[in-house]
Design goal:
- With 104 residues, the protein is an alpha/beta fold.
- The protein has one domain: Rossmann fold.
- The chain has a four-stranded parallel beta sheet with strand order 3-2-1-4, sandwiched between helices.
- Strand 1, helix 1 and strand 2 form a beta-alpha-beta unit.
- The model has no long low-confidence stretch (mean pLDDT 89).
């Protein structure tokens, strides 16, 4: 079904991401697992027959490096499964702390 498709799976070190990676490999895909948990991610990739690329979603540079690394390791990319989530929190401001805008 996915014969020779090249898929990058973020958050692939464990849980749902790992399950997607295993299923994609079972369906014939070539997989790159990406995760911020480098030791766990490398171990997972070795166990399931995937490539590993580090990824920190809080860093734009890391995202670019990850995609380029996965594309290089797999000789291109055909798909992405995003199961990773960013741990970056955006501060919310209340209306009272927002600058007032008015017509002068």
């Amino acid at each position: 079904m996915l014969n020779d498709r090249r898929i990058l799976i973020t958050g692939g070190a464990r849980g749902l991401g790992r399950a997607f990676a295993e299923a994609a490999i079972a369906a014939g895909a070539r997989v790159a697992v990406a995760d911020v948990l480098e030791d766990v991610g490398r171990a997972t990739a070795n166990e399931i027959g995937a490539e590993f690329v580090p990824l920190d979603l809080a860093s734009c540079g890391s995202i670019e490096t990850c995609v380029n690394g996965a594309a290089k390791a797999l000789d291109g990319l055909d798909g992405l499964v995003k199961t990773a989530r960013s741990r970056v929190r955006v501060a919310r401001r209340s209306r009272s702390s927002m600058p007032k805008r008015g017509i002068a």
